[in-house]
Every structure is written in structure tokens, then in C-alpha cells.
Amino acid sequence: MSSQPLLSLENLSTHYVSQQGARVVRAVDDVTLSLHAGGTLGIVGESGSGKSTLALSILRLLPPAARIVGGRMIFEGENLLDKSDTEMRRVRGKRIAMILQDPMASLNPLFSIGNQVGEPIRVHEGASRASAWERAVALLKSVRIASPETRVSQFPHEMSGGMRQRIVGAIGISCEPRLLIADEPTTSLDLTIQAQYLNLLRDLQREHGLALIFITHNLGIVAKMCDQLAVMYAGQVVEQGPVSRIFSAPAHPYTRALLGSIPRMTDNRQHLTAIEGQPPDLSSLPPGCAFAPRCPMAIARCRVEAPPEVAIDEGRTARCWLAVPGVEATAATMRSNVA
Ligand code: ATP
Ligand code: MG
User: Fold this and answer.
1) In the chain, domain spans
2) Is 290 in the pocket of ligand 1 (CB under 6 A)?
């Protein structure tokens, strides 16, 4: 593994600003993350925690109301924020590809499968129609679509949900990107197809040396697919590090709550647990730690001062006062004094 990460996000912040500018949603707030070539990073967090906004920020494919307001995104040594729109178009699909939450939203019902799978190859590599078509057949085969020679001329409505998801996967890998971002790619699939699709992604990753960012609500999938994990809460990464170490000893109370009711690490059906209370409104965050109102471990300081992101051991960070050296000991003394 090279020591230079493939992608590093440094203090990235993305906000949605309402037309009058009266309401600012801090969807991604000071996120620092990195991923090595060939690695797999899982991103988990409750609905609305900013996972998709983070992914769309990396591709600079944000809706008009969104603004990247701070930070850097270094991909293969270059800051993606310094690139022009034309340069970004060359990055998207070619070096970084994304598989969206809903496969139907990524496929055009009016165009044949061959046309859509071959398009990035024509656009990015200037391939002729005939050779792009041929490559499309090979790609359908590589995502394990049976009878690819017939399927390539068909249209999205003639495919099952699982096949459509595979086709979107084929489009994603068509130009052999270095990084593939998959945003909840299995939510619309039944369990068997889901497992097959995950195995396929893993095979493709191995065969092509892809790095993968995997956004999911499913911790079973994280355990199966990912070597690194970032836990998001209210737009921030509250804990990150190697999956095995976070699963065996979660540092942040939110991560602990998420993992709390998991019977087995390998249970594919296990989704994020409901945690008491509501996630905060990202346009009016409480002072201090955003998780404090729901946190069973919160101390007075958590409600007034936002915790820093601290290194808790090699390659691991948490954004929690209790992870700051000395604070937990003081808190424990205070708790025992009160008791
Ligand atoms: P889910 O798990 O439901 O997909 P998520 O973690 O992907 O959620 P995002 O879609 O990134 O969350 O949303 C983060 C925050 O940004 C939410 O508070 C959401 O309401 C807000 N948001 C998302 N899209 C827009 C938009 N186009 N305009 C304004 N606010 C938005
Ligand atoms: Mg999302």
C-alpha cells in the first residue's frame, strides 16, 4: 500500500443555503477523511446525517442550493476544488464513478442498455459506436448478466431490479475508475440479490484494484465489505478508523448506540438501530456537541462546547469530549461525587 492516500478530504464543509440565505443547512461540517488505493471505506449514519451530500461533494455534483464552503479534496495529488467544470467532467465517470441510491434514476428508459453502458467509453475514451457496443457486451458479462449479447439491445424496463442495479454497476466501472462511490446501492434489492451484488462488487474491486466508498444503513454490510469506517452524525464524522477496531471497541457513544443491538456482526439484515430522540435540525444546531441531547454519557461541557476531533489510537479518531485525555477521568470523579 502506498503511503499517499488516493483521496483525502481535509476539513470539508458543504452547506445548503435557502434562496434568501436565511436558512443554512450544515449538511457536511468539517469532515476530514482519507482512503487508500484499493481500500473500502464504509460511511454510516442516520437519515439526514449528510452521507449523500458528502458523496456528491466529492464528485462536485451538488444541487444548486449547495455550496462547498471550506476545505480541500485531494484526489491523486490534486485538489478537486481547483478544477474547472470541464476538468471535473473528465474526472467524473472516468477516474471517480458513482452508483446512485436508485438504479432507475440513473438509467434512461429511452435508450438501450448498450447505448448507456457504452456512453462513458465513447465520451471519455473517444471509442467508436461499434467498439463501445462491444465493450458494453463484455461489461455486462463481467457484472454477471446472462446472455449479454441479447440483453445489450434491450431497454431498462425489460430488466429486473437486480439486473438494473448490475447495469448501473457496469456503467460505474466502464472506464475503470480508481474510486467508485456506491450510495445505498442495495436498498431496492431483495436479500439474495443483495448478497450476490455485494460479492460482485467485491470481485470487481479485487479485479480492478478499485477503491470503494460504501454508503449504507446496514452495519452487516459494513462488516462484510469495508476495512475502514466513518460514522456520521449531524454532518460530522464523529468516529472513524478500522472496522474491526470500531466494532470491537466503539469510542463514541453514538457509535456504541448504533452497534448496541447488533446480535451478530455478520447478520446482513441488521439495520441501524433506532436511537431515542430525534437527530437535530442541521439549520439550527444546539451549542456544544450535536449528539449531547440524546447522549447517555453527556457531561456539562458537552452541552456548551463542541468537542474536538481527537486521535484515540493509530488511524482512529473520535469527536467526543470523553475521548479527550483526562476529561473522562474528571467526569467519572464528578459522577461518583454526585452519586
Ligand atoms: P439518507 O440516509 O436519508 O440518504 P443522508 O445522510 O444521505 O440521508 P443527505 O441527503 O446528505 O443525508 O442530507 C443531509 C442534510 O441536507 C439533510 O438535513 C437534508 O435535509 C439536507 N438536504 C439534502 N438535500 C438538500 C437540498 N437539495 N436542499 C436543502 N437541503 C438539503
Ligand atoms: Mg443519502
Assistant:
1) 7-95+177-328, 103-176
2) no
